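Dear support,

We are seeing what looks like truncated structure output for some complexes. This example has two components. We would appreciate it if you could run it in full and send us the complete token output so we can diff it against ours.
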Amino acid sequence: MNTKDRESLYKLFRDMADVLGTSRMTEIALESFIQAIRALKCPREAILPLFNELSECIKNSRPRVVPLIHLLEEFEDEMRFTRGDVDLESIRADAVETLQEKLDGFRERLNRLTEVGAQYVQDGDVILVHSASGVVIKILLNAKEKLQRNFKAVVLKQDFAKTRQLIQAIAQAGIPHEVVPEYDLIHHLPQATKLFIGALAVTPDLNVVASAGTANIVSLCHLGKIPVYLFVNSLKFSHQSAQEQHIHRKEEKETRDGLTYNLTTFSHSLVALQLIDHVITGKGEIKTTAADGGSRDLTR
Amino acid sequence: MEGIWFPVVVFLAVYVAITFEWINKAVAALLGVMVLLVFHVVDEHTAVGLIDFETIMLLFGMMGIVAVLRKSGFFTILSVWIAERTEGSPLRILVLFSIVTAVTSAFLDNVTTVLIIVPIVIELTAGMGLDPKLFVISQAVVSNIGGTATLIGDPPNIIIGSKVGLTFNQFPLYLAAPVILCTAAMIFYYWFTHRELFRPIDTNLTKLFSVQLLLEKIRFEFLSLKIDRVFLAKGLGCLVLAIGLFVTQTITKLSPGVVALTVAMILFVITRVDVEHMLQEIEWSTLLFFIGLFILVGVLEKQGAIEWIARNVFLRVGDNPYVMVLVVLWVSGIVSGFLDNIPFTITMIPIVQIMQATTPVPHNILWWALSLGACFGGNLTMIGASANIVATGMSRKLGYEITFLEFFRSSAVITLITLMICSVYLILLLWVTL
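Here is the complete output from our reference environment:
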């Protein structure tokens, strides 16, 4: 795969994670993988190199899509491409079945996390939410629809594309909400009771890779003593440090009102785990102070 | 000859201003009219009488119907559906989108068609790591080809149909065949000259994976607007009604202009749209441009200038119908590539009428030559047709700038091929009928 194609794929990952959240993107990636294997036309001996190419490409994406990488590694362990006595159609059927199992398992984990997460919403809460975290959206919907909690959401809007789905979902569910610019957060801190965030990855050096802008919001909430809740399923605990997550740095020339300048942006934020008060996984809350150990346990 | 020089100079000045885009084309045309009124070349009552309201009603009505359909999300649903059917095959992207663009352009406005199709084509091809430029150019080209098939597909046809009194059914009857042939030729030409680009991807697992992801992204991005099914059904119902009435024009005796405007008004009422908002969607500058040109050309006609051009330029080619048809086709084709085909068609209509009166050519073949030339000629350059300007503008906005030369390199040969196909078709048609 040439660099251009590789860059196109990584950009696609980033765009989708931005608007749909990492969990939903992981689901779509697994579905796409199944479709791609079904449509593939190649000789038996070509399947292993083709798979290796895709696997290598996904594992080196910028940034790393940690849950997808974990699922891919599990898939690799279970598949036996190298066995000479298996024909192409059997490999195809096996691969589709294994991937479907991974997808179902991932959805189960997500459901468990959203069920656990909904219990952290209490009547009277004013919850700050930001960016398109599929998990956080589902938690809010569960809390409203299944647990009948009465709460208000304050959506911190940055780029419209990134918050569109969030606003649409909570509006459709009838959750009382207010949309405010992210930079006005300080004015909403007095009424806020909690901040809910999702993440792309939790690293062993106690950092959280989250959507762009999260670090500022978390810092401000931390200063304002607003409890920060991070919802992550165990597949998001990475083996690699924050530096190895390949957060994408983009530098581009921008011209506005006749003024041209170089704008540098990063695809994701890095948040110190110590600023997060509650880390919730599908198994319940793990102590922040023990997050290092916890993350290591879960990663294993 | 003496009295005609002033309106001729005014007309040429307007043409130059439009061609070099010195001022807005509607303003240029109306300013020309005002100069003629101020200098008493024509009085205001005569000027108003020169406007072809049949054409204006048809354009206004179709713009209204398209505005409501655009709001209904119909085009987006259609484009996403096609994107899914392509399964990421570059050749299928070219073929399916070209067919959809051609068919949609035949019944609706070309500019609206490319406005909806081009962003999805760019998203799909760029996301696959392909260069979207050729795909964008192909959609502009095919929208001009497809629009030629019907009376309502392209402004030159609307003008010819209304001014000459041709029926809706006559257009597809005589023009569908060359349009289909030229669409097929365009697809073949682009495939043949860019075979590497259209290589199938089903042997590449990573590309297949990327395409599936991409289609999901397109579904999310373009279908996230809330679709009101009742609104959509009313919009499509009215479009079908309008086409039905166009087709049965000889029975109902309703002119296309009356049909389009009536259906548009019915649509405004039954969908309860914000009429003020819908009226903002109408391209008033295009309508005013038409009005101005009708008056300018009408004055030239009254003063005898058109007859002079016809007799001293076009009738010089002799009275051989084959030569006359080819001259109209190729002159229209080449001139429309560089000048706006709307004023050109309005100018050519009285000329062709004189040619037809001098040497009658059966089955309106001279009109079909004008239609094919004016519509297909628009493909020659980036500025030859509104759809080209809109498609390339949209492409630039999305980060893929297409230069004048790039467009010309991809469109010139196909324009010549399509004009050659049309030449053969018209010669055969004439040979059969003579």
